[in-house]
Amino acid sequence: MNNATIEVSIMGQSYVLACAEGEQDALRLAVAEVDREMCSIRDLGRIRARERIAVLAALNLAHAKLTAQAAGHASVPLPQDLAVRLQRLHQRLDGALDADPQLL
Q1: 39: Cβ–Cβ under 8 A, 6 or more apart, which residues?
Q2: Strand 13-20 and strand 3-10: pairing?
Q3: Which residue ranges make up each domain of the chain?
Q4: By the 8 A CB rule, do 26 and 6 touch?
């Protein structure tokens, strides 16, 4: 299968991404979702470091995906403690950011 490249922007930074030929639209949709999530986190104003924003965005998107999978597929439930663990992780990150303003 042939590969294609597309140029995209996430939080104002350009990236050139490779994907399978014919998958460009799907990749653009994924980029738009990641960009929306990262911009939303950035716009809250608490976190400024791009890497931290990316980690929180990845956690939010993974949580949303796993929740949707569990709701749509009774045979693939979420681990019982996953939502609790994600919430605790968010609280720990918030606590660390509150305690050390240099992390922002």
Answers
A1: 11
A2: antiparallel
A3: 1-32, 44-104
A4: no
Paired tokens of 93? 């990150």
73 exposure class (CB count in 10 Å sphere: 0-12, 13-18, 19+): exposed
Q: What span, in angstroms and rounded, lies between the C-alpha atoms of 104 and 29?
A: 29
pTM, to two decimals? 0.66
What kind and span of H or E run contains 32?
helix 24-43
Residue range 72-99, pLDDT digits in tens = 754 444 455 566 666 666 666 666 666 6
**Residue 7 and residue 9: Cα distance in Å, rounded?**
7
What is the C-alpha end-to-end distance of the chain, expressed in Å?
A: 43
69 to 16, 43, 57: CA distances (angstroms): 30, 28, 18
